[in-house]
C-alpha cells in the first residue's frame, strides 16, 4: 500500500527556514525578549515624547523648584517625578531625554559601524602595508581607556551633540575594525571567494557583496553592544559637561546638573540615572539574545 502524505504531514516534515530558527532561538531567551520589549518601548517614548510628556520640558514653573516626586512628602500631583532646580518637570525631561540619548547612541554606532567595517575589510584584503597601518592606528586607539579617550576628544572638539556623536563614533571604532578584519580573513580563504575571483568579480564586489554578508552575524551582535556603550559614554560625557548642554534634556546633562544637589535632593539624579541604566541593560540583553540566536554553536540540535 502506498502511503499518502497529507499537507499537514508534509509541513511537519519540512525543515524550518533559517529565519524561523533564528526567531525560535531568540524567543527562548526570556531576558532577550524582555530587553527587546523595553528597547521598543524606549524608542516609542522617544518618538512620541511630545505627545506623552505632560509638560514642555523647557517650561519654568516659578515657585515649584526642586519639588520631590508625588509619592514623597511635599510632592505635587501635577509633577509626578517632581521638578529640577529651575522648576522644570522631571518626567517630561526624562521622556525627552530618550530622544537625545538614543539618537546619539544610534548615530554614533551607525557611523562607527560603517567606518569600522570599511577599514576592517581593507585591512583584511590588503594585509601587508595598508592592513598593518590600519591595525597600528587601531591598537593605538585601544591602548587608551575608552571613556578617558572620549573625554579627551570631547574636550578638544568642544561641547555639542554633533561633537559628542563624532567622539563616541571614534572611540567605538576599534572593536568593529578588529572583528571585521578577523572575520573577513577567514572568509577570504573559502572556496566561494576563490570562485568569485575566477569569475572576474571586482575588488568592491568581493569586499561588500561577496564577503561582507557572511560577516554580518557577529557585527550585528557587536553593534548592539556598542550601542549600549555609546549611551553610557554619552551620559558620562554629558555628566562632565562636554556633551549636550543644558537646558536640553539629555540624561547625562541632567545628571551633571543634579550632582550639586545629590545630598539634599537625590531624586534629581535618580531618575535620569535609572533611565540610562534601563536602556543600557535592555540593549545588552537584546544583544545577548542575538548572539545566542545567530551563533550556530549555541543553537540546540533538534
TrEMBL record:
Pfam families: BPD_transp_1, OppC_N. CDD domains: TM_PBP2. Residues 98-287 form the ABC transmembrane type-1 domain. Gene3D superfamilies: MetI-like. It comes from the Bacteria. Keywords: Cell membrane, Membrane, Transmembrane, Transmembrane helix, Transport. The chain crosses the membrane at residues 32-53, 100-126, 133-157, 163-180, 192-213, 219-244, 265-285. It is found in: Cell membrane. It is a multi-pass membrane protein. Belongs to the binding-protein-dependent transport system permease family. This is ABC transporter permease subunit. It comes from Vitreoscilla stercoraria.
Amino acid at each position: 500500500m502506498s502511503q499518502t502524505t497529507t499537507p499537514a504531514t508534509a509541513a511537519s516534515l519540512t525543515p524550518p527556514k533559517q529565519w524561523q530558527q533564528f526567531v525560535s532561538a531568540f524567543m527562548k531567551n526570556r531576558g532577550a525578549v524582555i530587553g527587546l520589549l523595553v528597547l521598543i518601548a524606549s524608542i516609542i517614548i522617544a518618538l512620541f515624547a511630545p505627545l506623552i510628556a505632560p509638560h514642555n520640558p523647557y517650561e519654568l514653573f516659578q515657585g515649584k523648584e526642586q519639588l520631590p516626586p508625588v509619592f514623597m512628602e511635599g510632592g505635587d500631583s501635577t509633577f509626578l517625578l517632581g521638578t529640577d532646580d529651575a522648576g522644570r518637570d522631571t518626567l517630561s525631561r526624562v521622556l525627552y531625554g530618550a530622544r537625545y540619548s538614543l539618537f546619539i547612541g544610534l548615530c554614533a554606532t551607525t557611523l562607527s559601524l560603517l567606518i569600522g567595517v570599511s577599514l576592517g575589510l581593507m585591512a583584511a584584503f590588503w594585509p601587508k602595508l595598508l592592513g598593518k597601518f590600519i591595525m597600528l592606528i587601531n591598537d593605538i586607539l585601544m591602548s587608551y581607556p575608552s571613556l578617558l579617550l572620549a573625554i579627551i576628544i570631547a574636550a578638544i572638539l568642544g561641547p555639542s551633540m554633533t561633537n559628542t556623536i563624532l567622539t563616541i563614533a571614534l572611540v567605538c571604532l576599534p572593536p568593529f575594525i578588529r572583528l571585521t578584519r578577523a572575520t573577513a580573513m577567514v572568509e577570504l580563504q573559502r572556496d566561494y571567494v576563490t570562485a568569485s575571483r575566477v569569475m572576474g568579480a571586482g575588488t568592491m564586489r568581493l569586499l561588500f557583496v561577496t564577503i561582507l554578508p557572511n560577516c554580518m552575524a557577529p557585527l550585528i551582535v557587536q553593534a548592539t553592544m556598542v550601542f549600549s556603550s555609546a549611551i553610557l559614554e554619552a551620559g558620562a560625557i554629558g555628566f562632565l559637561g562636554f556633551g549636550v548642554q543644558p537646558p536640553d534634556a539629555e540624561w547625562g546633562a541632567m545628571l551633571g546638573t543634579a550632582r550639586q544637589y545629590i545630598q539634599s535632593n537625590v531624586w534629581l539624579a535618580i531618575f535620569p540615572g535609572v533611565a540610562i541604566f534601563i536602556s543600557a541593560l535592555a540593549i545588552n540583553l537584546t544583544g545577548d539574545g542575538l548572539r545566542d540566536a545567530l551563533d550556530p554553536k549555541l543553537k540546540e540540535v533538534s
